[in-house]
Amino acid sequence: MLKLQYSDFTLECGTDEAGRGCLAGPVTAAAVILPEHFENVLLNDSKMLSEKKRNILKPIIEQNAVTFGFAHIHPTKIDSINILNASILAMHQSIESLKIKPEFIIVDGNKFKPFENIPYETIVKGDSKFLSIAAASILAKTYRDVYMETIHEEFPMYNWKQNKGYPTKEHREAIRKYGPTKYHRKSFRLLPEQLKMEL
């Protein structure tokens, strides 16, 4: 069972992102404040759960959360500020969209920038330690997946509904054959043989 709280603050928000390593589509973050005494034995890091379980948990999280929010940062922005800054920006925007301002923020990973002077803590593998970060990881992943399934309709040859923009062999083959789309991150090495540009 994951822990409910890291700090002594009542309104503690967990935040996490999904899609950082993808070649196409947004990086998506979510932020969640869970109520006191919240329990769920299924809830875990989204990467440990099947798509079916994530989709079962999504409405449970949304119905039980004190407040939740999510945000997409799209490829043009990712290319202009880099993926780390885009991930942090997505987290900031998801926290900003919460209906209630958190008193403390716990962040999955080891990189974050201060948000509105709210105290925070970065926690490596936080999504497998704290319920609110696990909940945020599930919302970020499911909202991003829905987005990728939507843009799949526009460019079905990349099979984003299956690979969700991750660098699978099939995805790379499609890039080789059809070239990149407006949804591809131009600053990423889309093909292994691409030469790294000197920036």
Automatic annotation (TrEMBL):
<dbReference type="InterPro" id="IPR024567">
    <property type="entry name" value="RNase_HII/HIII_dom"/>
</dbReference>
<dbReference type="GO" id="GO:0004523">
    <property type="term" value="F:RNA-DNA hybrid ribonuclease activity"/>
</dbReference>
<keyword id="KW-0255">Endonuclease</keyword>
<protein>
    <recommendedName>
        <fullName>Ribonuclease HII</fullName>
        <ecNumber>3.1.26.4</ecNumber>
    </recommendedName>
</protein>
<keyword id="KW-0963">Cytoplasm</keyword>
<dbReference type="GO" id="GO:0032299">
    <property type="term" value="C:ribonuclease H2 complex"/>
</dbReference>
<keyword id="KW-0540">Nuclease</keyword>
<keyword id="KW-0378">Hydrolase</keyword>
<dbReference type="GO" id="GO:0005737">
    <property type="term" value="C:cytoplasm"/>
</dbReference>
<dbReference type="InterPro" id="IPR012337">
    <property type="entry name" value="RNaseH-like_sf"/>
</dbReference>
<dbReference type="GO" id="GO:0003723">
    <property type="term" value="F:RNA binding"/>
</dbReference>
<dbReference type="GO" id="GO:0030145">
    <property type="term" value="F:manganese ion binding"/>
</dbReference>
<feature type="binding site">
    <location>
        <position position="16"/>
    </location>
    <ligand>
        <name>a divalent metal cation</name>
    </ligand>
</feature>
<dbReference type="InterPro" id="IPR001352">
    <property type="entry name" value="RNase_HII/HIII"/>
</dbReference>
<keyword id="KW-0464">Manganese</keyword>
<dbReference type="GO" id="GO:0006298">
    <property type="term" value="P:mismatch repair"/>
</dbReference>
<feature type="binding site">
    <location>
        <position position="17"/>
    </location>
    <ligand>
        <name>a divalent metal cation</name>
    </ligand>
</feature>
<dbReference type="Pfam" id="PF01351">
    <property type="entry name" value="RNase_HII"/>
</dbReference>
<keyword id="KW-0479">Metal-binding</keyword>
<dbReference type="InterPro" id="IPR036397">
    <property type="entry name" value="RNaseH_sf"/>
</dbReference>
<feature type="domain" description="RNase H type-2">
    <location>
        <begin position="10"/>
        <end position="199"/>
    </location>
</feature>
<dbReference type="GO" id="GO:0043137">
    <property type="term" value="P:DNA replication, removal of RNA primer"/>
</dbReference>
<comment type="similarity">
    <text>Belongs to the RNase HII family.</text>
</comment>
<feature type="binding site">
    <location>
        <position position="108"/>
    </location>
    <ligand>
        <name>a divalent metal cation</name>
    </ligand>
</feature>
<comment type="function">
    <text>Endonuclease that specifically degrades the RNA of RNA-DNA hybrids.</text>
</comment>
<dbReference type="InterPro" id="IPR022898">
    <property type="entry name" value="RNase_HII"/>
</dbReference>
